[in-house]
Amino acid sequence: MVDSTALRAAFARRLSAMYGTEVPAYNTLVDVAQEVNREVLERMGADAERLGSIDRVTAERHGAIRVGTPAEMAQVARIFGAMGMYPVGYYDLREAASSSVPVVSTAFRPVDEAELAANPFRVFTSMLVAGDRRFFDEDLERRLGEFLGARRLFPPRLLELADRAEAEGGLDDQAAEEFLTLATRAFELSREPVSRSWYTELERISSVAADIGGVPSTHVNHLTPRVLDIDALYTRMSERGIAMIDAIQGPPRWNGPDLLLRQTSFRALAEPRVFREDDGRVVEDDLRVRFGEVEARGIAVTPAGRALYDELTAELDAALAGQRVTAEERNTVAAGLWEGRVPSTEAELVTGDLAYFTFHTTGHGTGTRPASAPPADLAALLAEGRVTARPIVYEDFLPRSAAGIFQSNLTSDGSKDVTRAGAEFGPEALAGVLGRTLHDPYELYASIRAASLARVRDELGLGREITLPAAR
């Protein structure tokens, strides 16, 4: 039996190999990321692995795909469910992007602490909202529906194997090989001709809409390795002559703990595609759709920590409004704001309840209880050295950063009629499409923290719950 964990790890490897043949610059990105990671490990030693072992970081990937309809989204959920990947979080890029990005998204990933440690492969998955009148009028929505309804992204055999794997916890060797082959093939870039006029009509609305609804299949939009020093990677990729987007998205580089997620990418490359003209001719041209993203993951923040991040982002926008600044100048201003408001140590993040950590006994007070029973207050346990804290890595995404990556790689801003009302499509609607629970990231992090506190309580022989610090 090949279990869901092994299926997930194997699929991530196969997808990476396939994407590397389609986008050779991705292989360069992976090589540079691993080169930087080795240097950081040599420089920092064990501290470099505070947010995951080097083996985990080296193997880690996140993919991105785009689908057009609720039916396609539900099928994607079945395929990833076979690999122990479940929908986490809701991202509305229609609101996060200033340009035309008419999609809502979720991320399929493991949710269990042990599964994340084994292989944290995640896929950011976006779905077109064709009923949103800011982007699509009634006629275009109808024609989109006809086009998307006529295509089949995933063969019935793949879906059958996916359902069996999820129900039984895995597949036998032969079925696993068939599943992995079909799943990888489903995300290859198609050579089937694309209707030039149809694609161009959608592209005037949104490059993202054209990439989803203007082609007969789906494909990997990007595949993202993880790096321990994204600033060093950005510089090194540029030195190799690979054009990067203008800035690193997310929190600034600063003299404090890494929080949340920082992302950047090389610019979308011109890739050869086959087009069918209205007169029936089939010609070769190119499209700039796919790009190479890379990420540096930090510590997961609590709702209070996220509120602080959002406040600082708004203050940065206000401080720089109307100014033309470089990415480095923007980072300098942002770092100054952070250094005045964000704790500069992990200990302060714990005591301010601004980030998530797991807690572990140090050996003091375990086994036989000391003469004076340890307190049930977490801050006191940490101060006395009875307990230590380890950060929980942020496994999810930032809507504004995702939109920033999308926008930086668009061929145009498209068109968005802000005078019209948008279609209501929130997390409840997305959960209904998926037919399964849409997990809240904060609840997942909190449950991992709570489980660690329960272990500490039992190991220390405490008769009551350990008290968390109050949020600042």
Automatic annotation (TrEMBL):
* Cofactors required: Fe(2+)
**What are the coiled-coil residue ranges?**
none
**Alphabetized InterPro entries for the sequence:** HGLS (IPR009770), YdcJ_bac-like (IPR047869)
Task: Give the keywords, sorted.
Answer: Dioxygenase, Iron, Oxidoreductase
The yes or no answer to whether the keyword Lyase is present is: no
What EC number(s) are associated with this protein in UniProt?
1.13.11.93
Q: Using the UniProt record, name the top-level EC class of this enzyme in a single word.
A: oxidoreductase
Record-stated family? Belongs to the 2-oxoadipate dioxygenase/decarboxylase family.
Q: Which PANTHER family does the entry mention?
A: 2-OXOADIPATE DIOXYGENASE_DECARBOXYLASE (PTHR39479:SF2), PTHR39479
* Descriptive protein name: 2-oxoadipate dioxygenase/decarboxylase
Identify the species of origin: Actinoallomurus spadix
